[in-house]
Design goal:
Length: 51
């Protein structure tokens, strides 16, 4: 019984950690993409103003 409980707890923690990591990676990726798009937009706007 104790072994089964321990395995269940470890599995649950591992699953939560994996989900958290995936969520964090997805969030970082989204933020990075948005930042790059914002930089490109600003650069384009500056180029238009200079031109």
């Amino acid at each position: 019984m104790t072994a089964i409980t321990a395995i269940t707890v470890i599995t649950a923690i591992t699953a939560m950690a994996a989900i958290t990591a995936i969520t964090a990676i997805a969030a970082i990726t989204a933020i990075t993409v948005m930042a790059v798009m914002a930089i490109i937009t600003i650069m384009t706007a500056m180029a238009v103003v200079i031109a």
